[in-house]
Specification:
By secondary structure, this protein is mainly α. It has one domain. The protein is built from 7 helices and no strands.
């Protein structure tokens, strides 16, 4: 870990943007690999969709990383509350979650749609059916993560911190964006039904 830390610091100092883009692309791809492993697409008959992973890598490295690295610099320089670190972190998190989060999730669906050569009408339908549901999931996870990020993590490492936490989140995004809304809701309902059955069995054993 020490050797990797030194290597990463050296790359970050020499080529910060390139380093952020490459590491983000890799970790976005990792999230998709997790999603495909845990929830393979039945239409592929067990085959791995490398093109889907490539799309996630592209979005992470070309769209997400350059924008977010500059965004973190912007809010860190503009939102400064001397002597009030907790309030400062809370203010930065609030701005991040009210400004960047809605835009960032919309850009994800637009990016995935463009890379799949979808029409604008198809992309708008994806946004209409999935964006708000994804935002609900976002607010269940990211406010707490970003508060820790802005409070404890140095500026140069904030994107990496988010990327590591994002492996699970990107797995969800990749799965949700690759599944039509009817299939997504059916999967959620099946999971809820299985949970209810398990709870009923536990109740009987008591």
């Amino acid at each position: 870990m020490s050797a990797f830390h030194k290597w990463y610091n050296a790359r970050l100092a020499a080529r910060p943007l390139l380093t952020n883009c490459v590491t983000t692309a890799f970790l976005f791809g990792t999230g998709d690999a997790v999603a495909q492993t845990l929830s393979p697409d039945p239409a592929l008959n067990g085959r791995y969709d490398y093109v889907r992973t490539a799309r996630m890598c592209f979005h992470g490295g070309v769209v997400f990383a350059p924008v977010v690295s500059q965004w973190y610099k912007l809010i860190s320089s503009r939102i400064v509350i001397p002597g009030r670190p907790m309030l400062e972190a809370l203010a930065r998190m609030t701005v991040d979650q009210t400004v960047w989060a809605p835009f960032g999730l919309a850009s994800f669906y637009v990016s995935m749609g463009v890379l799949q050569l979808h029409s604008w009408d198809q992309i708008k339908e994806e946004l209409r059916t999935k964006w708000w549901r994804t935002m609900i999931g976002n607010y269940a996870v990211w406010p707490a993560v970003q508060f820790v990020n802005f409070r404890l993590i140095p500026l140069d490492y904030r994107l990496m911190f988010v990327n590591i936490i994002s492996i699970g989140w990107n797995a969800f995004l990749s799965w949700f964006s690759a599944t039509n809304i009817e299939q997504s809701m059916e999967s959620i309902e099946k999971a809820e039904h299985r949970l209810e059955e398990l709870e009923a069995k536990l109740e009987k054993r008591r």
